[in-house]
Amino acid sequence: MKTIPVLFTFDASLEMPAGVAITSLLENAAEDTFYDIFILHGPECDFSHSLFMSLQEKYRNCRMTCRVVNGEFVGSYKIRGIPETAYYRLLAPELIPEYGKILYSDVDVIFREDLGRFYEKDLGNNCFGAADNCSALRPGVRKDLEKRLGLDWKKGYYYSGNLVINSEVILRDGLTAKFRELGKNNYLQQDMDIINLACNGRFAEMGPSFCLTNFLYSLCVDKRAEMDKIYGPDEVDRALHCGIVHYNGAKPWNGPC
Questions:
Q1: What is the pLDDT of residue 80?
Q2: What phi, psi does 135 have (nearest 5°)?
């Protein structure tokens, strides 16, 4: 049996989507996978009797642990209705000290395969494993990254909705202090801007199957030849047919998307 730690961070407004995401995670687990699931939330929430917690009674290959985060990122910049809990992933190395590496996911996702191949990837000296937003094929995004953040897009700009967090390296290099400092600023993409600014050039590419966002899906379909050149046809096929679907735009609980 292999144990894979998985982190979610959300508040009461996302209980139902979280339950759906966790169900899809457990439904698609390999027979030898045990998911050690952590949920970080603010002090205003009490999930001890929430319906999603009963999933561990149906699925015996998991354990769920809720942890309260006090006083971190209070008053942080909010936009597009994204709650303060979005920033909690930045402190995962401190708040989940049991593991040197942990897999993080937003709750607006559907898992379609076991996560073992992602978790087992060697991250080396990189801070995160993540999927690039493929700015090489998106001129408008390239201009935004250069103008708004001063980032070299050639080093990639990585999605934060699905991450393999290299806690050991992040703690060793004292990066949580940098995350906290950057968290005082009003970045349009919030935590995603923060990790890309703090760790530019220190991401292990996981491919679009790790985080098939609306944009990456469109590129895989409309610019298939270009995506095949970047990732290879096998990875693009995997993204389309069994990768993690991330609804980072319109939400399926609000209507068809």
A1: 58
A2: -65, -15
When pLDDT is averaged across residues 143-160 and rounded to a whole number, the result is 88
The gap from C-alpha 1 to its chain's centroid, in whole angstroms, comes to 24
For the chain, the 3-state helix, strand and coil shares in percent, each to the nearest 5, are 40, 20, 40
Mean pLDDT of 172-187: 90
List Cβ<8 Å contacts ≥24 apart for 133-136: 133/157, 133/158, 133/159, 133/213, 133/215, 133/216, 134/208, 134/215, 134/216, 134/219, 134/227, 134/230, 136/230
The whole-model pTM stands at: 0.94
pLDDT exceeding 90 applies to what percent of the chain?
A: 76
Non-local (6+) Cβ contacts of 43 within 8 A are: 68, 69, 70
Q: 């898992």: which residue's tokens?
A: 111
pLDDT value at 179 more than 70: yes
User: Can you tell me the mean pLDDT for 81-99?
Assistant: 87
> Which of 44, 42, 40, 91 shows the shortest CA–CA distance to 71?
42
